[in-house]
């Protein structure tokens, strides 16, 4: 019998993650918590949560920051994205399809209710049920019994064994399932939530390192005050007295507050500070790749981008883009040129996957490939790249268009769409008639999360309608592997296919860019660009 | 007088109805599906999108949506934001802040703008007049965000006289800097208007009469000249009060004021129709009320003005 303990795999992952990161983190602090816990409250910036603070309905950063700090899931991610048990005692599987999850005894929510197997099962069932229309419902789609077509109150794949044990059966083997469990959608909920879920979203009760500073701690559009949860007894024990999250609509205001000393830690930077923050906050800033990337998606249904001609043209475009120059000039080094379809902070990342040469800037190769494509069918018209004009995109889009114009000798231009909503609507209904910008922010630190949802046949976010049986087979093979590590090879082979077909052209990884004041120490930013607030200390 | 007020209030009803209809239509006509945008770069499952559309009545035709909205308003229900907060609560939190900001800014405008304009008018062609002209020209030519960033950097970050952004509950002392910045936008107009009006009034017969009656300059200037010069200025201030409320979007962003401008901006970006419509409706209401008050103020400033029965 082969029983695998998740903890062992996690240690191996931690090591792998640390190795990949060591090349690019220079400014991050080395020690944590040596000064002992302080009682000073840390202030930081965020944005008004877009939705009620219900874990399964929180899918954006404003709410995510709060939910991640007031709830403790089965596992949590450390700075490198390695997974460690938090509420879970053990997560075991024999076949990567049925998982037996045991949770630690004597854990409580801040209202005194115990954290039990039911707390997880009920929360997941709520999150998955169609009638509840939760924004993160797709996280549960691999659990047996999940349905998009009818309302399922209780998924057949979830079974409570006893107070502290439950079983999860997936509809197919997925070795990276345990990696996902640190995502906020998988948090447990107390029974108090079911009395009035709307009211709960306004004053959530969790089991995490922090909790709301009383009823109404969420002063909308102003701030959310969190205090230390005295009953929290897990690996993320806060080294400070609490967290005041100030909500900004404008990052420039937040940056001014950091300069003025009203904010301790800034987790995002305004465009205007990108060129200067590293000198202004020398030794107190971070600029390293995060689990997010930017790509250009070119659907095969567009003229000239199907079949062999399409492959040649995509490769030519990729070769014609000077990623180094754009990341330096436009982004002041706060983006890192892409070497693959995932991100350097993900365990298993490799920057020399066969075929990744297509990402190198090479004008001659670009011209040559374009000419070969023209031999199949001559190019006509203009290459348009759609982007949403309400975000900071115009700069890089125009730069890419200019490079294509100069290096390929074709007409190329940006095609601004006024709002993000409009762009996404056109992409979703497939009414868009040009290539468009896309991006992916990892939900959990796993290679497959950057590949399966975007490039799998009929996958949820497959905006370019890419379909490759070979790719799908390799992904299933990787997900069905004995464990995450064993799956890595298949995922990288799947990427080789992507490099050949280029359904999307990788541009760059988004960097975590943040800065902090002199008064705080032990500031470390996680794989997902968010600081690990619990370990920050502040001199009083 | 009472009849006049009643008539004005009744007139406001069709204006309000028309405004909500127009705003609702404009927000509705915005391309792009706010529900799809809720999912960010991820493509949502269509079934979940359908559920959400139904919940926010987005699946119904425009006129049905508008009637539902209107019906709810008469029942005192302004709808809820995506974050589940009643729009009425958001209104109650943000309007007082912006009103205070606009009032403080108007106060600075009145004291600064009218004061400088009066002195310029009384000593026209002098050194003070010339320098006031230069200063107000500088203010009028600088976009407000430049003034805001410079003021924030110099007075808050470098000198530390003010807090860089507005703190919890938006206390008055934190609002001083943003209010001053807002005031600079209309400073030049107020100064020039007051100056011109003062010069004109000074040449009027009643001023000369007052002087020949032997009244002191200290009485003539405030009572006879200033009071009679204020009508165009006050009209401008009323129009400007509305501009201040709307123009606060930029300033509120830079100083992180939890007010109307910031909230509406965010709601537009997120496509939260009920929030946008409710806020704009209340803005229109305030605009109407302020203009009514100003019209009534005319009679106080100039007793010759009478309201038709």
Largest interface: A-B, 56 and 54 residues
Global geometry of chain B? globular
Question: What is the end-to-end distance of chain A?
Answer: 55 Å
User: Which stretches of chain A of 5+ consecutive residues score pLDDT under 50?
Assistant: 1-35
User: From the helix content, strand content and strand pairing of chain A, which structural class follows?
Assistant: alpha+beta
Rg of chain A, Å, rounded: 23 Å
CATH architecture of the domain at 289-512 in chain A: Roll
- Write down the overall mean pLDDT of chain A: 88
The fraction of residues in strands of chain A falls at: 15-25%
Biggest beta-sheet profile of chain B = none
Count of DSSP H/I helices of chain B: 12
Structure description:
- The complex is a heterodimer of chains A (540) and B (309).
- Chain A is an alpha+beta fold.
- Chain A is built from 16 helices and 21 strands.
- Chain A has a domain of 224 residues: Dipeptide-binding Protein, domain 3 (Roll).
- In chain A, strand 5 and strand 6 form a beta hairpin.
- With 309 residues, chain B is mainly α.
- Helix content of chain B is 77%, strand content 0%.
- The longest helix of chain B is centred in the last third of the chain and has 38 residues.
- The mean pLDDT of chain B is 83.
- Chains A and B meet through helix 6, helix 7, helix 13 and strand 18 of A and helix 2, helix 3, helix 5, helix 7 and helix 10 of B.
- Chain B: Its main location: membrane.
Short précis:
The complex is a heterodimer of chains A (540) and B (309). Chain A is an alpha+beta fold. Helix content of chain A is 30%, strand content 20%.
What structural keywords apply?
heterodimer, A: 540 residues, alpha+beta, Dipeptide-binding Protein, domain 3, 16 helices, globular, disordered N terminus, B: 309 residues, mainly alpha, 12 helices
């Amino acid at each position: 019998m082969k029983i695998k303990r998740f903890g062992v795999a996690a240690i191996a992952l931690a090591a792998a993650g640390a190795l990949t990161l060591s090349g690019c983190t220079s400014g991050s602090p080395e020690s944590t918590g040596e000064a002992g816990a302080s009682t000073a409250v840390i202030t930081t910036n965020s944005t008004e949560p877009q939705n009620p603070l219900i874990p399964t309905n929180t899918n954006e950063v404003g709410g995510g920051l709060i939910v991640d700090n007031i709830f403790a899931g089965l596992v949590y991610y450390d700075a490198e994205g390695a997974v460690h048990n938090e509420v879970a005692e053990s997560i075991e599987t024999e076949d990567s399809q049925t998982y037996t999850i045991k949770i630690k005894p004597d854990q409580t929510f801040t209202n005194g209710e115990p954290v039990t197997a039911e707390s997880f099962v009920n929360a997941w069932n709520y999150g998955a049920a169609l009638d509840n229309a939760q924004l993160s419902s797709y996280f549960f789609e691999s659990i047996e019994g999940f349905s998009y077509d009818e309302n399922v109150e209780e998924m057949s794949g979830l079974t409570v064994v006893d107070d502290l044990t439950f079983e999860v059966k997936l509809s197919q083997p997925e070795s990276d399932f345990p990696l996902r469990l640190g995502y906020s959608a998988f948090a447990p909920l107390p029974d108090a939530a079911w009395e009035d879920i709307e009211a709960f979203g306004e004053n959530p009760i969790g089991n995490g390192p922090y909790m709301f500073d009383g009823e109404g701690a969420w002063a909308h559009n102003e701030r959310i005050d969190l205090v230390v949860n005295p009953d929290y007894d897990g690996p993320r024990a806060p080294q400070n007295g609490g967290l005041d999250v100030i909500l900004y609509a404008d990052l420039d205001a937040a940056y001014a507050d950091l300069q003025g000393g009203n904010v301790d830690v800034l987790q995002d930077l305004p465009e205007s500070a990108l060129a200067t923050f590293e000198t202004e906050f020398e030794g107190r800033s971070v600029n390293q790749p995060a689990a997010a990337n930017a790509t250009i998606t070119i659907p095969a249904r567009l003229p000239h981008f199907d079949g062999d001609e399409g492959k040649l043209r995509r490769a030519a475009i990729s070769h014609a883009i000077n990623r180094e120059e754009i990341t330096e000039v436009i982004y002041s080094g706060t983006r890192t040129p892409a070497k693959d379809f995932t991100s350097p902070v993900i365990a298993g990342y490799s920057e020399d996957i066969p075929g990744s040469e297509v990402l190198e800037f090479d004008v001659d190769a670009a011209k040559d490939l374009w000419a070969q494509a023209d031999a199949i069918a001559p190019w006509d018209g203009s290459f348009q790249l759609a982007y949403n004009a309400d975000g900071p995109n115009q700069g890089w889009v125009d730069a890419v268009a200019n490079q294509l114009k100069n290096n390929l000798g074709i007409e190329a231009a940006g095609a601004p769409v006024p709002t993000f909503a409009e762009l996404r609507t056109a992409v979703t209904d497939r009414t868009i008639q040009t290539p468009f910008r896309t991006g992916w922010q990892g939900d959990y630190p796993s290679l497959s999360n950057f590949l399966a949802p975007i490039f799998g046949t009929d996958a949820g976010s497959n905006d370019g309608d890419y379909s490759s049986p070979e790719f799908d087979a390799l992904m299933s093979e990787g997900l069905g592997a004995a464990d995450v590590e064993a799956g890595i090879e298949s995922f990288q082979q799947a990427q080789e296919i992507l490099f050949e077909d280029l359904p999307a052209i990788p541009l760059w990884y988004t960097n975590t860019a943040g800065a902090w004041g002199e008064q705080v120490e032990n500031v470390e930013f996680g794989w997902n660009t968010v600081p690990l607030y619990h370990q920050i200390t502040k001199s009083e | 007088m009472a009849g006049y007020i009643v008539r004005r209030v009744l007139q406001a009803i069709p204006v309000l109805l028309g405004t909500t209809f127009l705003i609702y239509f404009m927000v509705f006509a915005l391309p792009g599906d706010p529900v799809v945008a809720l999912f960010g770069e991820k493509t949502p499952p269509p079934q979940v999108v359908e559920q959400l559309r139904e919940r926010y009545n987005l699946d119904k035709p425009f006129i049905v949506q508008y009637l539902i909205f209107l019906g709810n308003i008469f029942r005192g229900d302004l709808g809820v934001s995506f974050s589940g907060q009643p729009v009425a609560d958001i209104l109650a939190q943000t309007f007082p802040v912006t009103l205070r900001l606009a009032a403080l800014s108007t106060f600075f405008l009145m004291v600064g703008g009218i004061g400088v304009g009066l002195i310029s008018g009384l000593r026209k062609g002098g050194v003070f007049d010339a320098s006031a002209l230069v200063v107000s020209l500088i203010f009028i030519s600088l976009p407000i965000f430049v003034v805001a960033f410079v003021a924030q950097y110099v007075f808050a970050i470098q000198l530390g006289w003010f807090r860089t952004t507005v703190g919890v509950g938006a206390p008055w002392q934190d609002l001083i800097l943003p209010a001053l910045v807002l005031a600079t936008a209309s400073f030049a107009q107020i100064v020039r208007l007051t100056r011109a009006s003062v010069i004109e009034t000074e040449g009027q017969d009643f001023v000369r009469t007052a002087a020949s009656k032997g009244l002191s300059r200290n009485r003539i200037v405030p009572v006879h000249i200033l009071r009679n010069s204020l009508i165009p200025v006050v009209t401008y201030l009323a129009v400007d009060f509305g501009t201040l409320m709307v123009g606060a979007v930029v300033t509120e962003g830079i100083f992180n004021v939890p007010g109307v401008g910031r909230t509406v901006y965010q709601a537009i970006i997120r496509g939260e129709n009920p929030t946008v419509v409710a806020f704009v409706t209340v803005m229109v209401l305030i605009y109407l009320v302020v203009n009514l008050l100003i019209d009534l103020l005319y009679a106080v400033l100039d007793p010759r003005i009478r309201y038709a029965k």
